[in-house]
Every structure is written in structure tokens, then in C-alpha cells.
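User: I'm putting together notes for a lab meeting next week and I want to include a structural view of one of the chains we've been expressing. I don't have a solved structure, so I'd like a prediction I can at least talk through. The sequence is below, exactly as it appears in our construct file.
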Amino acid sequence: MHIRHLIPLFERARDRSEPLVLATVVDTAGSTYTKCGAQMLFSRDERYAGMLSGGCLEADLAGHAHTVATTGEPRRVRYDQTRPDAELLGLGSGCEGTMDILLQRLDPTSHWEPLAGMLDAFRARRAESVLLVVQSQDPAIPLGAGRFAGTGAGFGAGADGDARVALALGAAQAPMPDAGAAPRLQRDVVPGVDALHLPIEPPPQILLLGAGPDARPVAELLAFLDWDVTVSDHRAHYAQREFFARAHEVRTTELRAIAEYLALRLAAGAPPFDAAVVMSHHLESDREYLRALAATEIPYLGLLGPAARRDKILARLGADARRLTGRLHAPIGLAIGANTPEGIALAIVAEIHACLGRAGPHAGATPGS
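Assistant: Thanks for the context. Below is the predicted structure for the 369-residue chain, given as C-alpha cells.
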């Protein structure tokens, strides 16, 4: 569950100064629905956001969350699905794994941390890293305390204690996250203290160059994944917000200005694009789009259309074609037998997801391009 899905419930509770309970998967073994770092929220009026088990543990977890909300004391709960009596207890998901979950209260006295700082970083599209204490034998570093790497701020131990926590965890602080970094449990980060390293990355940034009708399902699927989509076309009648309601940005940009736009965007400190898809259905336009993209470091570039069309465009690009080597996926998309705009969109988005997630060799990358 992405952190974005926690925002509505969090903002509702914060506006009302009502406490919440944050549940964080600390450790897992075997087969489990979610893994280390997954989170969900519980409110005192029995609302929740997120999911940790597909629904089989949440009801029981809500009971523990109620206790934490009432007492203010964090607690760690273990669910063991390998036990023979798991089904009899109503916890039989069939996953046959174990999950350790930390429950901690969020309220004004704790400044809503760590979730407030995590969401601030997410909204600012700023990479951040949190070290969250999940086991402690040190009274000065309590369960649920922690430190942000980017700001250096401590939390979870009161005004004076926050500073001590920040100092104690400073030397042990994990580095800022690399792209695709996964949460991990770090034992004995300081003597007697285990902590969960939680990287907070901005959502992937995807650029669609071409806003024709078949770009709309691509943008919709990307938005469904909670990725930021920028749609650009040199044809104003295509680049309309009404066609791409969930896109982060919809813009009309002349072909000759694309390279300048990409350079100025980076110079302004905007997150770099992780992938760009060229799908204008116009040969010369696609060539100019690829020429501009060749000068960037965007790791995934996709081109819609058959191999013969690709070869024609690359031949006209001349020396710029070599700068696309290893990055250009053309024809774009996984081979799933798609023959409708929606199916083709699924194939495109699936390939981008696989490549950005490092799921395996980038089979769609055009060799020698």
C-alpha cells in the first residue's frame, strides 16, 4: 500500500486533533501478503486506510490498535500463520508466514510523527529516509522513536528526548535511499536497539510525448499506480486537461522546445523523469522527440510502432541514435497479445513497471539503437 493512500485519513484526523494508530510491518518470514515497511492507519471511529494482510488480520489488528490509541503505549504484535491453530483462531490466511507489526499512536503531542515527516517529504517530491525504532532495551530510545536522515530530526521521545534520539541514532543512520531501495530491518543499530530503515521515495515520474486518444489509457493506468504523469504534445487540441484528468501535468510544448523544457525542468530542481514514452503517431515528430530524449539521462525510453518504423526513425537520427543504446524499447510493451488501446496500454505500463522495478533483463530494449 502506497503512502499516498494514507493521506485522506491522516488529514481528517489531524484537522480534528483526533489520534491515529500507525501500523508498520517490521519483519516477515515465509509467505505474507505484504512485506517489511508496509503501513496502514486506524482511527478511533474504526476507520482505516491501507491493508497489511488482504483482510484476514485487520479485524484483530484493529483491537490492538484500539488499545494503543487508548493507552498511548506502542506495542509490537506477531501473527504466526504457520501455527496449526491459525484457522481455528480466525487468522488462517493460508499464507503460511509470520508478520511482526509495530503499532504506535500519532497525535498532536507527538507532532504526528513519523507519518507527518514522511508525508511532507513525499509531497515535496523529496527523497527521505527514516530509522524507526522497533525493538529497544534502552529507556532513552523508546519503541516508535526514530530519526529522519534528510533533516536530522528525532521524534518519539518528547522534546528533550527527541534530540537525544537524533544524536544516538545519527551515527547509525542509514544513507538516503537509492532508486528502488527497499525497507530493511537493522539489528543493533546501537546496542540493544533494532530499527527499521524506511526509504521514502517520490513517485516515479513518467513523461508521455503524444496525447492522442490511445495515450489516455496509458495515463490512466500510470495514475492508477499513483505515479506522476506529465503529458505533452505540440498539438494543443490533443493536450487537454479534460482528457487527462488524473495527470500531474498536461502541457502544450512545441517540438523545437522539448529539449529546452527538459533542461529547464531539471535546472529548477524538479524530480527527473524515470521513463518517457513517445507516441505521437507522426514520424517526424517522434524523431524530434527522440532527438531531445537522447540528450537526457532518462533510463527508460519507449517508442510506439513496429520495428520497421523504428529503424526508419533511428536512421534519420544519425549520431543521436547511438545515445539511445540500451535505453530505447521499440516496439514498446510486453508481448501479451494486446490488440486494443487498453491492452496496449497495459503492455506498455507493465514493461515500464518491470524495468523500473528491476524485475529482470530489459528484453524490450533495442540492441544497437
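A couple of points you could mention at the meeting. The chain is about 30% helix and 25% strand. The two ends are 37 Å apart (CA to CA).

User: Perfect, that's what I needed.
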